[in-house]
Amino acid sequence: MKQSRRRFIKAAAAGTLAAAIPLSRLKFLSPAEVKAATGDASIRWIFLVDTQKCVGCGFCVKACKIENEVPYDAPITRTWVERYVVTADGATHIDSPLGGRDGFIDGRIDGRDIKPGEISKAFFVPKLCNQCDNPPCVQVCPVGATYQTLDGVVLVDRSWCIGCGYCIMACPYGVRFFHPVHKVAEKCNFCYHRISMGLKTACEQACPFGARQLGNLHDPADPVTRRIMTERVAVLKDEYGTKPQVFYIGLDEAVR
Amino acid sequence: MSEPMVVHGLDWTIKELFVYPNEFIYWAIQIVMYPYMTGLVAGAFVLSSLYHVFGQQDLKEMARFSLVFSLALLPVAAMPLLLHLQQPLRAINPLLTPHFTSAIAAFGFVFSAYAMIVLSEIWFVYRKYFVEQANALRGMPGLVNSGKHLLYNLLTLGAHDSGDSAVAKDKKAVKILAATGIPVACFLHGYAGFIFGSVKANALWMSPLMPVIFIMSAVVSGIALCMLTYICILKWSQFRTARNKGAGGQAAAGGVQIETINKAARYLLGFLLAAISLELLDLIFRGYTAMKSWDILRSIMYGKDFINIFVLQYGLGNLVPLILLLLPRATVNRTAIALILVLYGIFMMRWNVVIGGQAFSLSFSGYMHYQLPIIPHNLETFKEGLCGALTVAAMPFILFYGLNKIIPAIKQTGH
Q: Which of the listed CATH numbers 1.20.1330, 1.10.10, 3.30.2400, 1.20.1630 matches domain B24-265+380-405?
C-alpha cells in the first residue's frame, strides 16, 4: 500500500482525535486539590493565645515535642515560647532557649544580666503555626506536598516532600524546619490527628493557665470564636498578607 | 534505617541575639552554586548566539566553543539542586506532580526544553562533521576505530547528506534554534532570580529587579568563563606546539587573538555595567524607602557583610576588572586576570544574595553567620560544604574534556 503524505496526516489526525475524546473525560487534578478534599468544610480551626496568662513554663513545648515525635533535645520545635524584656532605656531583649521547653529559669538574656529595677515590662509570647488563610508555604511547594485542608489546617505529606526547603524560606513566621529523622519539611498542624477526633491539641491540654485555646471560627457558639469576635485581638505580621489564623490577646508592639 | 539524626543547618549556622528557634541557614553553598552554574550556562549560550543569530563574525571562533561548553555546563546546573535536596531520590516529583504556583515547579520543564535546544543546535552544527568522521572511519581496522565509526554513525541519526543544500539547511536550523535559545536561556536564569525575588518573607530577596539582575550577571559570568577557558586552552596548545618544536621554535600558529578577545570583552562590559547599575538601583531604593527591614539590612550591608559586598563583590569583582578592561592597550594576560575577577565578583554576588539573605533573622532582632564546612564529618557537611561546591565547580571541565573528544570545540589547525 502506498502511503502518501496526505493520507498519513489524515490518519494521524483521526487517531489523535480518537485518543483525545476518552481522555477528555478525565480531569487533571493537582495533588493539592486531591489532598484538600480531606477535612470538614463546616469547621475552620483557629487558635487563641492569651499572652496575659502565659507564665513561660514551657509545658506546651514539652507536650508538643512528645506528642508529635519531634526529637526532644534537637533545637527545633513545632511550637515555642518567647520571652520579652523591655528595659527602662527602651531596649527590647528577647530569648527562647530550646524554644522555652524547660521554662525560663535563668534571669540572663544573651549573657546579659538584667536587674529587676531596670525592667519596665516583661512578658511571654507562645508561637505556633498560624495556619494562614493565604499560606505562602503552600504556594511555593513545587510538588504540592504541603496543602491546606478544608478545615484550614496546613499539612505536609511526608511521603512526597522532596526537601527543597522553599516552604521554610517562604514562611515569615519561621515555624517550619526539616524533621531530623524523616528529612522532610515539618511544622505545627494543630495536632490534626487529635483535633480530628475531638481532642484538644497537646499544647492546649498541657497549658495549666488556659493561655492556649483551639476554636472553630465557623461555629458562632464556640467560646473561642466569641472571644475573638468580641474582644480586641491581634495577629502576627499581617503586613505579609498571609491572613494568619492564630489570634493574640495582649500582643505588644515589641513582639516580632 | 539507623541514620544518625541531623538537624539540617545546625552544623554551619551560628546564631547571634534573637533568632527564632527553627531558623537556620537552610540554603547553603549549593544554592549559591545553583544560580552561579545556571548563569554560566545561560551566558555561554548567549555568547554563542551572538554569532549564530546576530552574525557577529568576530565571535565565530568563540561561538562554537561556547556552545559546546554550555552543553558541558548544562548537567552541572542541576547538580547543586540534587546535592541540596533532603530527599534527592524524589527529585523527579516536580515533573510528576508539578504545583505550578511554585516558582520551582517549572524548573524541570524549562531546563529540559533548554537542554533539547542546546543538543539539537549542536547536532546541526556538527552534523557535517559526524558524516565526515563516519565516512573516514568506515572500514578502518582496529576495535577503537570501529567503535568510533559506530558512534559517529549513530550521531548522524541516519542523515548522511553532506551536500551544499543540506548544509545550508543545517545552518538555517542552527540560526532558528539559537534565536529560540536566547529567550529560553534568559528565562531559565531570570527564573532562578524569580525563585529568590518572589520570597516575600525575605526582606533582602524580595525585589522585582531580582530576575533582571540575575540575567545580566548570568550573561556576564557566562561570557567571562567562556573567554577565560578559551584563552587557557589556546595558550596551552600554543605552549605545547612550541615545546614540540623545540626550545627555539617560533610562536605557534593559532594562538590567542587579542581581537577576538577584545570583541567578546566589549559585550561583557556592556552586560557588566547593566548588572552593576541594577544592583545599585536596588540598594539605593531600599535605603531611600527605608522600610521596616532597612535597619537590619543596613546593619548587614554596611556592617557584618561590608567586606563581602563592597570590597570583594563591588570592588574586587566589579570595579577592578572594569578598569582593567577599559584601560587602553589590552593584553591577553591582563584580560585573563580581569575575567577571573569578574567570575569571582559574580560568585560573591550570588553568595551575598543567598547567604546574605539568611544572615538576619525573620524577627529582625538577630543574626545568623554561615560557617562553610571545610572538612566534612558526615554526608551533609560534604554535600553542603567546600567539597560539594568544588565537585560541582570541577564537573563542567571534566565533561568538557570528554565532549571535546567527540565534538572538537576548537579547530586546532588553520582558521
A: 1.20.1630
